[in-house]
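Page 37, top half.
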Amino acid sequence: MGFIKNLKSLFIEENSTDPQVEPENMEPTAPADTPSKPVNVPRESTLSTPKGKLDQRFLDTLLNAMEEQNLEGFDYLEFRQALKSLGRMNMDEATRFKSAFAMAQTMNVTPSELTRTATVYLDILNKEQKKFSEALANQEKTQINVRQERLSWLDETILKHQQEIESLMASINTHRKEAEQLKAELDEVHQKMVVTQDQFTRTHTFLVEEINSDISKMEQYLK
């Protein structure tokens, strides 16, 4: 992709020693007592510019789209290349634009033609933005909406189970109160039965003793 590198250089200042490009995925360093080997540090997927960081992947995608639809002849991109070349010279911005346009004029290019071709590339970028938005919306549908639906189902299921648990707890409390009441009734009934048995036993014993006494007396006195 030699051309895309050249096209990139029209918009991004590329310098292997540029401190604005930060490394990523650095390999682990060797222990202190082991001689370290040179590490190849890949360039980060973002590039720093005065306006902030650019993502390398998206930059390549957009520049590639512009490359594939590059207009024939001297257009806006060639004009920008001329501006970049003149940027190495000590001249103000107005002079650079006029000097670059002087080069364009040698190829019968007018200011309106430069503006028109620049607009063509804006349209290309806008179409790429539309494609990206559509792809993002599709990702949202497949990646986010599915999870949101699952999350809603889980929330509803959790609420349903909580309601079931609350209902079960209410039923348990009702049964527990009933069980406690039955235990109290059992104790009361048991105590009554103990008292009744005692009363019966004492009464029975009294009568038996009385009759046995009479039998003894009859055997004694009635001969």
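Page 37, bottom half:
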Amino acid sequence: MSVIERPRLSPARMRPGDVMRVGAVGLRTRPLRAFLSALGIAIGIAAMVGVVGLSSSSGAELDRTLSALGTNLLTVSAGTTLMGEAAQMPVEAEAMIERIGPVEAASAIAKIPEAKVYRSEQIPEAQTGGISTYAARLDLLETVGATLRGGTWLNQATERYPAAVLGSSAAQRLGVGAAGPDTQIIVGGARFTVVGILEPVALATDLDSGVLVGWPVAESRLGFDGHPTTLYTRSEEARLEAVRQVLAGTANPEAPNEADVSRPSDALAAKQATDQAFANLLLGVGAVALLVGGVGVANTMVISVLERRAEIGLRRSLGATRGQIRTQFLAESLLLSAMGGGGGILLGSAVTMGYAYYSGWPSVVPIWATAGGFAATLLIGAMAGLYPAIRASRLSPTEALSTP
């Protein structure tokens, strides 16, 4: 007799759509648990995307500011003497700096310590509000790139009379909302009319908390001696470093070491570097939150395997292979992480755009941050679901079905 050989049956292969459907079974049957697990992933990804987005938006705002204001502004200010006393710049310092070939513009201010500022005569003498009085040249606004919030800047007529322009912080501290002929303050014991209010000055922040008056009226009414304290210069960009090398010696030939030269745009760049370091710290916090979310996904998957032993046994007895069981639970873990990652990316992007809009920044969410964040979620999901998937695949049909 011949033996009839039966053809060996191979298990049906699961197509990608089948894998997705069986992987979503556990999520559909336990939606609240799936939501809470995905929420942990979403919080971590939202934190990471938000931190990167806000940092990038802040950097874009800095680049826009420097592009508008320029990086060719240098300042030279009076430092200290060898004895530790406040140094004094020569009266001719501004004129001498203007003789430097590459210098395109120069202007100056002079701080007048004795001229205290008050809103009215009724304010106690000790309550100065930290406001300083400066004598200012007429071309100061163009040199430092400042703009007016309201009113007008000093001109050849008003610089000789008690007229003042307030910095943005000074106006706020004095409670002055608008400039006009009826708005007056007390400067050095005399009444001055507020003719203008400045917007914040990015490259000359000292002006924000200052009251600016004309050079002639400062000499005639406030006891100003004519010595500038800070000079601002605009130079050719290509020869900026050369100007920087000679600026102190030109401004104060007798004591160059008593003059401090700086580039205001460098301070903004340093501030951006500090913000970036802080952003990196927050990025680490987001990574920890993402890791915690991954632990939550792993915990959910382990519990899911324990609760669905009967389902696993039934599928195995109907012909499902260990690889298919492993694929099912791994797909469930990846779907769970992908849901959290997608939600986190949307939330982080929304926070970035909202804060950027509120701050007046350009909204920037780098593609690498969203793509990297989503890839991180899939990696976390694969790692979190790997052990539960292997554990589920190792259950024999009899063991799984006999477990109560």
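Margin note: The longest helix spans residues 264-307.
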